[in-house]
Structures are given as structure tokens and as C-alpha cells.
Request: fold
Amino acid sequence: MKPTPTRIYSSQVLDRVVQILDCFGPERTDLRLVELAAATGLHKSTLYRLLEAMRSHRLIGFDEISGSYHLGMKLFEMGSLAVERLALDKHSHPILDQLADVSGETAHLCVLDGSDVVYIAKVECTRTLRIPSAVGQRNPAYCTGVGKAILAHLAPEQLAAYIAETPLHAFTRKTLTSAAELKANLRQIIAQGYATDDQEREEGVRCVAAPVRDHSGRVIAAISIAGPTMRVTKERVTELAAHVIRAANEISAKLGYRSVASNGAAARNGARNSDRSLPRLNGADR
Reply:
């Protein structure tokens, strides 16, 4: 049997936009209409309409004095996000490995996407009893530790919009289903420096999470450890939180964030107990 050829979808307008963008480079940062027409082979009137549409979306900028076009700030913003994501993936995995190892539980890295968190990295513990999760999985942010760690650091208007647009459905008897409850919990997260999901998404599962910041201090993700409540007990939460905060701070530092001093009660406890790492489970138990 012959292999089925990969189906390629094409859009003339999109193809032409990319063709225009490809004209720019390190030595061709500013180009006039006539130069772009020569490089693309497009008629000047067609090219002008495309450039004006691209300008409206900030993909292209125009210098009135020189009469030349240049790449727009929207591309810079999007490129920065892409680089940030690549850096996040690169720096998080070894730290998640360490976190899973020291805690004996599954470690996750998640980002906020709309009203949900998306799991973009996972390191499983080696124990027989594990929590169900997968890279690419989505969960509502309001009932997960990672989600609440991010929501707690949204700007007030962003949080207000999130709460107004997101139905707070109950998944378990412990799910926070009122705006007042959620807001109070988010204030507590800010104060203590970490978030928990105490069986709010799934019965029998407890999670401890902390925010990850980029070079500017903006919270862009969260990491967590999660496991069955029989192992992640309430008595262990503060101790586990200290490890999660340290791991989140380490990722943040690798992304360029410099003010990574631990905060909140859990971090203070972690500092006091810095010489007492969590007991590692031996190979037979894990």
C-alpha cells in the first residue's frame, strides 16, 4: 500500500501575508512598497490592501517620514510568548523530576488557557497508586491547585471577568461554588504563598501548588504535586508546600525573575526546616 499523502491546507491571503513577512530580515528591517512589490511579485494595489490590513492588526508598522514598512509590535509580543513557552518547557522538566523525587508524588506544570488550566508537563511518581492526569488535559482553574495559584495573581479586572464568565459547577462536595468563597480562598493563597486543591476536583485527591513567574514577575504558570489524600495528608501540606514553592522559585529564577525570596507561612516554615528534606521513599515503596 502506498502511504497516504499528508493533506495540506492553503489560504491565498494567509500565504501572501507570510510571503510579505518573509521579506524582512536582519539586513532588511525597513522596506518601501516598491521593494515589497518587487520581492513578492504582488501588484502594488493588492499589496497595499494587505499591508493596511496587517497594520490594523499591528503585524506591520509604517514610518511616515521614510515611507517604509517594518515588522509590527504584535509579532514581537507573540514571539516573546513563544520564547517564554520554550524556556518554560526547557527549564521545568529537571526541576519537576526533583520535585517528584523528593515528594514521592506526581508533579505537574500547568498554564491558564481561557477558563481552564492545561497540563503541559508531568512527571509521575513510581508508586502503584497514582492520580489520573495527562499532558494536554484540561481542568477548570477554580477547582485545581494550579489553577487557583494562577488566578490569585490575576489583575483585579481579569479576575472579575473570569468569575463573571465562569460557572462554578460542583465536582465534589468540597468544590468552591460561590464567588465569595473563591475570592476568600484566593486571598488566602496570596497570604500563604501556595494553593491547595483539597478534593475539590476529585474525591480522594489532594494537590499543593505554587506560581511560576517570568522575568517581569508576571505569573505565567504553576507547578504542583498531587496524590491520594492517604499520602498527601493535611499534616504534610505545609511541608510539601515548602518544596513546591522552592521548585517554583527555581523555575522562575531560570526564566529571569530575580526577586524569588520565599513568602508566606509555608515558605517561612520551609526555611526553618531547610535541613530536613522530605523523607525519600525507597525503591520498594515507590
